[in-house]
Amino acid sequence: MRMRLSTSQLRPALIVIAALAFPFLAEAAGGGYYVGVMTRVMIYALAATSLNLVLGYGGMISFGHAAFFGVGAYAVAILAQEGVTSAWAAWPIAVAAGAAFALVIGAISLRTRGLYFIMITLAFAQMLYYFFVSLRAYGGEDGINLAARSRLPWLDLRDETTFYLLVLALLAGCLYLLRRLAASRFGTVLRGIRENEARMTALGYPTYRYRLVCFTVAGAAAGLAGALIVNQHGFVSPSLLDWTQSGTLLIMLILGGVGWLYGGVAGAAAMLLLEEVLSHWTGYWKLGLGLVLLFVVLRAPGGVGSWFARGNTRG
Amino acid sequence: MLLLEQGLNGLQFGLMLFLLAAGLTLVFGVMDMVNLAHGSLYMIGAYLMATLAQATGSFWMALPLAMAATAAIGMALESGLLRRLYERDHLSQVLATFALILIANDLVRMIWGPQALLLDAPRALAGTIEIIPGAPYPAFRAFIIGVGVAVAVALYWMIVHTRIGALVRAGASNREMALALGVNVKRLFTLVFGLGAALCALAGAMLGPLLAVQIGMGESILIQAFVVVVIGGIGSIRGALVGALLVGMVDTIGRAFLPVLLRGFLPNNIADALGPTLAAMAVYILMAAVLYWKPTGLFPARG
Predict the structure, then answer these.
(1) Position A303 in a domain
(2) Beta-carbon separation of B91 and A247 below 8 A
(3) In whole angstroms, how large is the CA radius of gyration of chain B?
(4) DSSP helix/strand/coil, A58
(5) Kind and range of the H or E run holding A218
(6) In a domain, B261, yes or no
(7) B149 CA: distance to closest CA in chain A (Å)
(8) What residue numbers bound the domain in which A172 lies?
(9) Engineering a disulfide at B59: which of A232, A278, B122, B152 sits with its beta carbon 3.0 to 4.6 angstroms away?
(10) Domain count for chain A
């Protein structure tokens, strides 16, 4: 018993140390390219984790989560084109934009249930997709380039390792907040609503407001992920808001384990690294990815996370 | 005159959406299954049609062959794989059928290569006819409208007057009860899936000459078909028809006239910027509005 307790405490510490050491080891081994790959994995992990708050903890199947991701990215890119390059200004605005859109879209969508909720969130995401397609001043269908990464005092984000460490810190911070949130009274009520909404309503909880707050917080976190991804790619186009992107975020989360604190991280890492490996090996990597996904659905319904976190999938 | 012509275009697009949405809404309503891979069947149908039309040299010979082949693929997929997902939650179905999209796209690229295929309209329908006096309309588009109406009537007759139709309606309105009353659901489900796949191939054959036969063609139209299904009410053929016509009209008329209309009361530069945006968003605004006021669609099948 004692042994198991200490390994479960040790494992997170080991992961953090490995994550901190990774960019230095990779640079030393001449694999600087992989620092960027891992940065991308962590940004998608953040986006998938924000979806986990909505889906895993709130029980809402949102099929339009890429909208908030894209809005955050566009906020940074548009501000940069207008001359605002400070991260202190642009990133909070991206977060606020994600939250604001989530608030409005959530306020309308949360009146529907089940399949209809899936479809109405999809509809709003498609509206935003076409909005950015027709936004000719900011690139329209072709998207816009970010001339340079956002600026921070003291830190030079152009340096891959610095940017990697900043993203790592933000991801860790968000995971910590999610854990606190899940353990708080708010999180408990939210899980109550997920399990039995009628009961929570009868107990006197304003369930609609709880779910809306959850949806909005997730939108804010997705906006932050968007601000990071545009800095990583140096480019944003409407395809970042496409429905297949929302689908990809959902797939990552299902793959990793819905409702498990690290489900988004595990899923993003599994999917993007699989893509990375398969695409080096064959041009038909999507075929391989599809087969792996099918295998997971049929053989490991709890996601890959369930293999090494048995009995621990419900946060 | 222009309005009438655009109206016909809207009707034509709406009827094609109906072909896709009919299969989708039945799978949705009867098996309670989210099938994102429906668009892939449409793509496969169009590719088979283009290949068979070239091999046989005849559009009319290729059409039934492509429909039968796509139906067979659909039924094999249903009985081999999708059947296992009926009892699972919607999330698993989304994951599995999303995986099928990835697999289908890469398989098609493997077999046919990355470039788009050409599918010509039959030579007999290459000209124009005058449906509206004084305004020539492409004969092939008029033919598509005819096919769409014929399929709608046939499906309506099948659903309302045949035994299979009664079973489908029973399955859509109360699946557990239909099961309890001893309906052979396994065979029914496979049959419904095959029918949906055949309609996909038909839509692919009709739209192939108008749009490009290419990888990813299923994804954009799939979402519009889902919009139709949701607007109409899941499981309802009548809802799918009304929804498809609404979506087809709103989309086509919106694109053609919204920019002009806005110029009437807005400054030109704002109208020019806003018009195309609103036109592209119109379908989704329509869906959000319908769901806001009628959260289970226009013709809910479940009583």
Answers:
(1) no
(2) no
(3) 20
(4) coil
(5) helix A207-233
(6) no
(7) 27
(8) 32-241
(9) B122
(10) 1
Using an 8 Å CB-CB cutoff, list chain A residues near B297. 116
- Contact, A123 vs A115, CB < 8 A? no
Split into its structural domains, chain B has a count of 1
Q: Which residues contact B244 (CB under 8 A, 6 or more apart)?
A: B14, B15, B17, B18, B21, B228, B232
pLDDT tens digits, A59-116? 999 999 999 999 999 999 999 999 888 999 999 999 999 999 999 999 989 988 877 8
- Whether B226 and A119 lie within 8 Å, measured CB to CB: yes
Can you tell me the distance from the alpha carbon of A59 to that of A259, in angstroms, rounded to the nearest whole number?
9
Q: CB of B293 within 8 Å of any CB in chain A?
A: no
What are the C-alpha distances in Å from B110 to residues B16, B71, B118, B161?
28, 21, 17, 44
Token pair, residue B47, equals: 């590719």
Distance from CA of A290 to the nearest CA of B (A): 4
Of A112, A120, A284, the CB nearest to B110: A284
Three-state SS for B136? strand
pLDDT of B266: 79
Task: For residue A310, tell me if it sits in a domain.
Answer: no
Domain that holds residue B191: 2-214
Suggest the residue from B94, B224, B229, B285 to mutate for an interface test with chain A (most A CBs closer than 10 A): B94
Q: What is the distance between the alpha carbons of residues A59 and A67, in angstroms, rounded to a whole number? A: 19
Q: Which of B81, B96, B291 sits opposite A116 (nearest CB)?
A: B291
Q: Which of B99, B223, B281 sits opposite A290 (nearest CB)?
A: B99
What per-residue confidence (pLDDT) applies to B197? Answer: 95
Interface contact flag, B103 A290, Cβ < 8 Å? yes
CB contact under 8 A, B106 and A284: yes
Nearest residue to B292 (alpha-carbon basis) of A80, A31, A110, A32: A110
**Within-domain flag for B38:** yes
Helices (H) and strands (E) in chain A, counts: 13, 2
pLDDT in tens, A199-213: 999 999 999 999 999
Specify if A298 maps to a domain. Answer: no
| B83, closest residue in chain A (CA to CA) | A298
